[in-house]
Amino acid sequence: MRAKLIAIGKNAAALGIVVGLWCMYALMAAGFHVLLEGLTAVIFITGVALFVEDTMEKAFYSRELFTWQYLILGLFVIVSDLLWLYWASCDTWLQFALRGLLLIGGIAGTAAWYWFAYSWSVMGDEERRILTLEKAYRKAAKAFPKLDDEGVRDALKEVLFCRLKGDTLEGDLLTGKPLAASYRTYNGIARAGDMLSAERAAAMTNIGQYIEKLIESRHKDDTASAS
């Protein structure tokens, strides 16, 4: 996930630098009207160039990332780029609004396909499993403030698979520090049929103790206030 965010940041930074340089040049050497006209072409060409560069890199150096989902992502990018030209050529405010909505829809569709189709297609099995576990935990965690200790304890046994930052329920998931092999939860270990009894008992005890530590952290603020 971090690598994907870095790649997106790199492309966004490259586009921003090119647009910034064009704006500086146009304002100093031409004028505001030329700036706007040129900006249409600059953004279009830069967007296409960045995607072509990314495609060539994947095709020659990272073939495992060159999937059919990526080809469809390319269509989304091209359509969004063409919608940009279509929006930039509007003559009335109504066209400006309607074509702008189409452009926003194209960009949103591109982003959605990237995150929910392409990114998923190039993940390894472990990465997919961690992402699924993260979603399950975050969904359950939304209810923690409304639950009593027993409710939180039961929820954690079902969804907690790694340590939390600061060892408190408010901390972020530390996916690099799983509580058990294969990122199993307390209940997952209890249901596992491929573990020895002693191994299962030890793992459940370890996770159970950590869960109790998290439960205790809920009341630290109350204890400090009382004292």
Description:
The protein has 227 residues and is mostly helical. The protein contains nine helices and two strands. It has helices at 2-29, 32-61, 68-88, 93-121, 125-141, 149-159, 186-191, 197-217, 220-226, and strands at 162-164, 173-178. The protein has a two-stranded antiparallel sheet. Helix 6 crosses helix 8 (197-217). The longest helix is centred in the first third of the chain and has 30 residues, at 32-61. 12% of the residues are buried. The mean pLDDT is 84.
The strand order across the widest sheet is: 1-2
Poorly predicted residue ranges? none
What sequence of helices (H) and strands (E) makes up the elements?
A: HHHHHHEEHHH
Give the helix tally. Answer: 9
> How many strand elements?
2
Portion in strands: under 5%
Outline: elongated
Rg calc = 25 Å
What is the helix fraction of residues, given as a range?
over 70%
**On the 0-100 scale, what is the average pLDDT?**
84
Structural class: mainly alpha
Distance between the termini: 43 Å
The biggest sheet amounts to: 2 strands, antiparallel
Task: Name the descriptors.
227 residues; mainly alpha; two-stranded antiparallel ribbon; 9 helices
Structure summarized in a few sentences:
The chain is mainly α.
Chain-wise SSE layout:
Layout: H1 2-29, H2 32-61, H3 68-88, H4 93-121, H5 125-141, H6 149-159, E1 162-164, E2 173-178, H7 186-191, H8 197-217, H9 220-226
Antiparallel strand pairs: 1-2
